[in-house]
Automatic annotation (TrEMBL):
Belongs to the peptidase M24A family. Methionine aminopeptidase type 1 subfamily. It catalyses: Release of N-terminal amino acids, preferentially methionine, from peptides and arylamides. Residues 14-247 form the Peptidase M24 domain. The lineage of its organism: Bacteria, Bacillati, Actinomycetota, Actinomycetes, Micrococcales. This is Methionine aminopeptidase.
Length: 263
């Protein structure tokens, strides 16, 4: 089922999205060399509860995971790209960290992710990989408006990722969001234009381009049963926003509170 939100529900989604964006930027600002992933998770819990929101992750137990996730934020380091389970690990200089956060407030969820370098960048390739996912995300959002097909968004993302030399994995991608965190429609990171569901005002989408440096194959961490890593051990990057389709385009909901889109 594809959920279309009314104006009141979209207004609540703006509040939830602002919470997600603000928490992610707060966490990024606190992260440095020596920060433990479990510290980040504890900070996320504290910030979520202080905002009067609920975690979408702590009790999350889908078929592809190993029991309830049990944590408040995904912390994916270096070769980890999705569902990074926080663990007892202190961040090292040059680590590439992705924080992925979804919360619920007043019955509406929002979801976003950011990737960044901790301390001194190891290489220009890491920074470019992050930038490519951000460009693909921005381009898809700019394209989104009523009447556009989902395949148009997927094709736009895929063209940018593949054009930069990356392979594209289609197992995991973006998704509808609203009264639940994950719902239809699926938003693949590559596809054929002119195909799929026609976007409508009131539709919320979490769009999330992600890549791995030299592969498109994932493996699941054997120790935690959750963290998805690149099959070759290469570095990874992931960018995500929740957007609402409006009458004329798309509104980014997961910017930090007080921040408006450029342009």
């Amino acid at each position: 089922m594809i959920e279309i939100l009314n104006a009141s529900e979209v207004a609540r989604a703006r509040v939830t999205g602002g919470i997600v964006g603000t928490i992610l930027q707060t966490l990024k600002g606190r992260c440095g060399v020596g920060t433990n992933l479990l510290e980040i998770d504890a900070w996320a819990k504290e910030l979520i509860l202080a905002a009067g929101a609920q975690s979408c992750y702590v009790d999350y137990a889908p078929s592809f995971g190993s029991g309830p996730f049990g944590h408040y934020v995904c912390t994916a380091v270096n070769d980890a790209v999705l569902h990074g389970m926080p663990r007892d690990y202190a961040l090292a200089d040059g680590d590439l960290l992705t924080l992925d956060l979804a919360v619920m407030k007043d019955g509406i969820a929002a979801d976003a992710a950011i990737s960044f370098i901790v301390g001194t960048p190891r290489s220009a390739a890491d920074e470019e990989m992050i930038a490519v996912t951000e460009r693909a995300l921005a381009a898809a959002i700019a394209l989104a408006k009523p009447g556009v097909k989902l395949g148009d968004l997927s094709h736009c993302i895929g063209e940018i990722l593949r054009g930069a030399g990356y392979l594209v994995n289609l197992e995991f991608g973006g998704h509808g969001i609203g009264s639940t965190m994950h719902q239809d429609p699926h938003v693949a990171n590559d596809g054929r234009p002119g195909r799929g569901y026609k976007l409508r005002p009131g539709l919320l989408l979490a769009i999330e381009p992600w890549v791995m440096e030299d592969t498109d194959r994932l493996i699941t961490d054997a120790d935690d049963g959750w963290t998805l890593r690149s099959a070759t051990g290469c570095r990874t990057a992931h960018s995500e926003h929740t957007i609402a389709i409006t009458e004329t385009g798309a509104e980014i909901l997961t910017l930090p509170s007080g921040v408006t889109p450029a342009g």
